[in-house]
């Protein structure tokens, strides 16, 4: 295999993970982490210029190009945030310098695993990559070694492994369905081959396979009945990891699900995966929206908000069609950018105030105006108020599905409104209430947060035509 | 394939389901580990037989991993961990044994109905293997939900994973089987070496997950 952009975005994180595991000194490694993430991002941009050829193991098409660029961009900005976050953690003694070597190596390993899952052209390889991403995040969630962090990591580990195991069973069933048609051996797991021949696969076997894949990868997406790991993992791990989990890892699992949905769509005799996804999406939206009202922990609250938004995205993809797919893609991009920006703000706020309890944080717009207004802007974006990007994508989701399924759309809108009320109710005192907690000025890096929010604002006002045509191509591909 | 070859494969896969049932009613950690070692040995035999029948030499690697890693190293390591931690030997079941066994029978029936119905076109051996392996997977899940002890949950997960390996080897000519079984072994090694157990031990003086549950939910 020759070295092209596709293998480079895998090689950079893999090599830097090895390097960061050896190098001492957190200042140096934090910088190297940023450099490696930037290099990966720049390489991913080159995919637009020279399109690499897909092989038996690696795949490049319009769909994963969007995911790769988004993933590498958010990993880069998160690594910038992580550098200043980590410095504070070292100074307050919450993390020992020895752990940081491990932390940075794991960060790059996670990047490698996510990129591998996105470029894999082999459903077995994709599965191994998602497993690896799960494992690294489990280790990172438990890094503080407090009671809560260990419980969160354990819960995440057990539920994540069960999900991963079910996904593997589904993968084996897909191979079983493919074997009579494409023959034994490697071809039976190559995605491009599978999708070409999927029309002749045994529909009954495909149906069962998809049920397992939906349950398995759906656990990782955080869909409602299977979400139990998600709030704990977000709340107890280091905040850069919460940002990566919400902004990226959920998307990677969703990507796996979309690939299999595309395969089922080719086979007309198999069940339509759409209604299943719509149902799970709606349950997630309503459930998470209601759960927002009783939250006491600020990171946990935004974790529930992530479940809600993944629900909206899965709903949009479940409805299908060029418009709804376009809306789902746009919403996914906007959510990744906004939610990671929110976690950047929340991370610094929790450091300044020394707590994550909503009741102990107050009057942020007075005590730390930049952080406070940054978070406020993020919240305004995430609840879907105009003129920000999420308003536009939610509007598109609703308008593109209303004609086809008015009642379902009404339920969705209801969920969005309930979530809006819950978030504003909780965030109001945090922003404008009586100032509480420590008021020390924050040593924060504002650049990643405001870059993300700026992009979201820009997308809400003006979407560049290049982006629109790009997304339209992907939406067509998704069927 | 001769009918004798088929019968032996059938026998071994069936024994794996039986071993899963045996794990369901063990109420001591050491006994549970011994049954798990038996479970992994049966898996190794079954995979080796598949390797012979399918004439797929790479499957012998998977069988060897199952035998050495899962049937010997892991149980021995867990034995030592249990001894060193001095954790109580009783396993608290969340539900009674009778009810658990009934649920197990129900799950096996369910997997037979589902898998045999959807795979009429596949060859007989693969069909039976898939049905049995789904049973083992579901029984593994049942073990995980009925136990409160962290060690026995891990054992439940490992038995579930054995079911997946059975399914992967039963699917004739499936690529990456060896790689996947290695990936799973890494996953298991990660836990069993004790990252979690040791830390949990260090912090809670117990590996009973119920202790963890005290900290569940949000800090108040």
UniProtKB/TrEMBL annotation, chain A:
<keyword id="KW-0812">Transmembrane</keyword>
<feature type="transmembrane region" description="Helical">
    <location>
        <begin position="239"/>
        <end position="258"/>
    </location>
</feature>
<feature type="transmembrane region" description="Helical">
    <location>
        <begin position="35"/>
        <end position="54"/>
    </location>
</feature>
<dbReference type="GO" id="GO:0042773">
    <property type="term" value="P:ATP synthesis coupled electron transport"/>
</dbReference>
<dbReference type="Pfam" id="PF00361">
    <property type="entry name" value="Proton_antipo_M"/>
</dbReference>
<keyword id="KW-0560">Oxidoreductase</keyword>
<dbReference type="GO" id="GO:0005886">
    <property type="term" value="C:plasma membrane"/>
</dbReference>
<dbReference type="InterPro" id="IPR003918">
    <property type="entry name" value="NADH_UbQ_OxRdtase"/>
</dbReference>
<protein>
    <submittedName>
        <fullName>Hydrogenase 4 subunit F</fullName>
    </submittedName>
</protein>
<dbReference type="GO" id="GO:0008137">
    <property type="term" value="F:NADH dehydrogenase (ubiquinone) activity"/>
</dbReference>
<keyword id="KW-0472">Membrane</keyword>
<feature type="transmembrane region" description="Helical">
    <location>
        <begin position="445"/>
        <end position="468"/>
    </location>
</feature>
<feature type="transmembrane region" description="Helical">
    <location>
        <begin position="156"/>
        <end position="178"/>
    </location>
</feature>
<feature type="transmembrane region" description="Helical">
    <location>
        <begin position="312"/>
        <end position="330"/>
    </location>
</feature>
<feature type="transmembrane region" description="Helical">
    <location>
        <begin position="124"/>
        <end position="144"/>
    </location>
</feature>
<dbReference type="GO" id="GO:0016491">
    <property type="term" value="F:oxidoreductase activity"/>
</dbReference>
<keyword id="KW-1133">Transmembrane helix</keyword>
<feature type="transmembrane region" description="Helical">
    <location>
        <begin position="66"/>
        <end position="86"/>
    </location>
</feature>
<dbReference type="InterPro" id="IPR001750">
    <property type="entry name" value="ND/Mrp_TM"/>
</dbReference>
<feature type="transmembrane region" description="Helical">
    <location>
        <begin position="370"/>
        <end position="393"/>
    </location>
</feature>
<feature type="transmembrane region" description="Helical">
    <location>
        <begin position="6"/>
        <end position="23"/>
    </location>
</feature>
<feature type="domain" description="NADH:quinone oxidoreductase/Mrp antiporter transmembrane">
    <location>
        <begin position="120"/>
        <end position="417"/>
    </location>
</feature>
Automatic annotation (TrEMBL), chain B:
<keyword id="KW-1133">Transmembrane helix</keyword>
<dbReference type="InterPro" id="IPR038730">
    <property type="entry name" value="HyfE-like"/>
</dbReference>
<feature type="transmembrane region" description="Helical">
    <location>
        <begin position="154"/>
        <end position="171"/>
    </location>
</feature>
<feature type="transmembrane region" description="Helical">
    <location>
        <begin position="177"/>
        <end position="198"/>
    </location>
</feature>
<keyword id="KW-0812">Transmembrane</keyword>
<feature type="transmembrane region" description="Helical">
    <location>
        <begin position="32"/>
        <end position="52"/>
    </location>
</feature>
<keyword id="KW-1003">Cell membrane</keyword>
<protein>
    <submittedName>
        <fullName>Hydrogenase-4 component E</fullName>
    </submittedName>
</protein>
<feature type="transmembrane region" description="Helical">
    <location>
        <begin position="6"/>
        <end position="25"/>
    </location>
</feature>
<dbReference type="GO" id="GO:0005886">
    <property type="term" value="C:plasma membrane"/>
</dbReference>
<keyword id="KW-0472">Membrane</keyword>
<feature type="transmembrane region" description="Helical">
    <location>
        <begin position="94"/>
        <end position="118"/>
    </location>
</feature>
<feature type="transmembrane region" description="Helical">
    <location>
        <begin position="130"/>
        <end position="147"/>
    </location>
</feature>
<feature type="transmembrane region" description="Helical">
    <location>
        <begin position="58"/>
        <end position="82"/>
    </location>
</feature>
């Amino acid at each position: 295999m020759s070295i092209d952009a596709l293998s480079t975005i895998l090689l950079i994180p893999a090599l830097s993970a090895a390097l960061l595991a050896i190098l001492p000194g957190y200042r140096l490694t934090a910088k190297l982490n940023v450099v490696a993430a930037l290099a990966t991002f720049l390489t991913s941009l080159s995919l637009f210029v020279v399109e690499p050829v897909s092989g038996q193991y690696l795949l490049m098409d319009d769909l994963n190009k969007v995911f790769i660029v988004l993933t590498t961009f958010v990993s880069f900005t998160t690594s910038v945030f992580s550098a200043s976050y980590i410095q504070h953690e070292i100074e307050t003694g919450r993390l020992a310098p020895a752990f940081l070597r491990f932390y940075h190596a794991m960060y790059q390993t996670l990047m490698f695993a996510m990129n591998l899952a996105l470029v894999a052209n082999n459903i077995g390889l994709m599965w191994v990559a998602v497993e690896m991403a799960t494992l690294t995040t489990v280790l990172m969630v438990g890094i503080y070694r407090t009671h809560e962090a260990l419980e969160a990591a354990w819960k995440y580990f057990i539920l994540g492994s069960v999900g991963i195991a079910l996904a593997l069973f589904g993968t084996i069933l897909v191979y079983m369905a493919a074997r009579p048609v494409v023959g034994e051996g490697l071809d039976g797991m190559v995605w491009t081959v599978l999708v070409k021949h999927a029309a002749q696969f045994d529909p009954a076997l495909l149906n069962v396979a998809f049920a397992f894949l939906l349950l398995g990868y759906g656990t990782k997406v955080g869909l409602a009945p299977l979400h139990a790991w998600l709030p704990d993992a977000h709340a107890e791990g280091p905040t850069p990891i919460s940002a990566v989990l919400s902004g990226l890892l959920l998307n990677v699992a969703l990507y796996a699900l979309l690939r299999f949905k595309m395969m089922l769509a080719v086979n007309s005799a198999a069940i339509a995966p759409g209604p299943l996804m719509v149902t799970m999406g709606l349950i997630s939206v309503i459930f998470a929206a209601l759960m927002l009202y009783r939250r006491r922990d600020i990171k946990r609250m935004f974790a529930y908000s992530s479940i809600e938004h993944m629900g909206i995205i899965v709903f949009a993809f479940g409805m299908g069609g060029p418009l709804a797919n376009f809306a789902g893609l746009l919403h996914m991009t906007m959510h990744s950018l906004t939610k990671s920006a929110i976690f950047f703000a929340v991370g610094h706020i929790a450091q300044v105030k020394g707590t994550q309890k909503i009741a102990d944080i107050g009057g942020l717009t007075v005590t730390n105006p930049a952080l406070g207004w940054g978070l406020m802007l993020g919240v305004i974006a995430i609840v879907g108020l105009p003129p920000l990007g999420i308003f536009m994508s939610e509007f598109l989701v609703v308008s593109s599905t209303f004609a086809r399924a008015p009642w379902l759309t009404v339920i969705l809108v209801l969920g969005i409104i309930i979530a809006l009320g819950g978030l504003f109710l909780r965030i109001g005192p945090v922003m404008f209430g009586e100032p509480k907690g420590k008021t020390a000025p924050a040593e924060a890096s504002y650049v990643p947060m405001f870059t993300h929010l700026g992009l979201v604002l820009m997308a809400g006002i003006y979407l560049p035509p290049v982006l629109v045509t790009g997304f339209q191509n992907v939406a067509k591909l998704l069927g | 394939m001769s009918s004798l070859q088929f019968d032996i494969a059938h026998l071994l896969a069936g024994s794996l389901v039986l071993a899963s049932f045996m794990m369901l009613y063990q109420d001591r950690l050491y006994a549970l580990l011994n049954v798990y070692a038996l479970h992994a040995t049966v898996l190794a035999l079954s995979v080796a037989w598949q390797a012979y029948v399918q004439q797929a030499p790479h499957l012998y690697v998977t069988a060897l991993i199952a035998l050495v890693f899962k049937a010997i190293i892991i149980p021995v390591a867990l034995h030592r961990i249990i001894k060193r931690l001095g954790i109580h030997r009783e396993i608290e079941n969340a539900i009674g044994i009778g009810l658990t066994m009934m649920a197990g029978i129900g799950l096996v029936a369910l997997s037979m109905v589902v898998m045999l119905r959807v795979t009429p076109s596949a060859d007989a051996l693969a069909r039976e293997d898939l049905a049995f392996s789904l049973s083992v997977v579901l029984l593994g899940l049942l073990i995980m939900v009925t136990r409160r002890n962290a060690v026995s949950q891990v054992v439940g997960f490992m038995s579930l994973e054995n079911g997946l390996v059975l399914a992967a080897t039963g699917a004739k000519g499936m690529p990456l089987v060896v790689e996947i079984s290695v990936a799973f072994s890494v996953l298991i090694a990660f836990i069993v070496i004790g990252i979690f157990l040791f830390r949990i031990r260090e912090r809670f003086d117990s590996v009973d997950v119920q202790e963890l549950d005290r900290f569940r939910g949000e800090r108040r």
